[in-house]
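Structure ticket #2291
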Amino acid sequence: MTRTSQVRAVLIAALAATTLVGTITSANAKGTQPKSRDAYVTNPNDPGLIELYSTPEPGQIGPMNWDGAIGGWGPGNFESRHWDDNDYTEVQFIGCVVDQGGGKSAGVKLWQSIPFSIDKDMGTQTYYNCFTGPDASTRAWWNAHYEGGDKRYFTIPQINGSSTIRATMSVKRVYVDTALADD
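Resolution: structure written out below.
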């Protein structure tokens, strides 16, 4: 290494160190940082927090991991949000409708998300009753443990028994519950 190359390397290292120190100094100059940046630390008085039901309403399941709705899902083209679980999972649909030709059934497939590998197919349950009225419900449960992953999600691979139907379905309310003790 020539003398010019050595001087150049030292100058580059000094510039990099100055840049890093300057960045740290400017970050600390803005004031003290909170003690915890954990996303799970909450203040119960924060606006926008929603309290889950402590006891279920008649005909409903108890406290759940999440609830929501589905709109415009065709066979195999969407997946639900993922949730933490690796034992018991219950999925309830209330008020199912199909946009073309009426709905009679939907296949709901549960998956175990396996990081850096193929997700585990946990089986399909067929939902019928939720199609009989706007407040009619169907729920199914899967009770299994699989190694290698701790997140689950569901898909709808079939509508009215077909995986190639062009119709889409919507569900007024979806509840996901992971506590076997609720039943």
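Closing remark: The first helix runs from residue 3 to 29.
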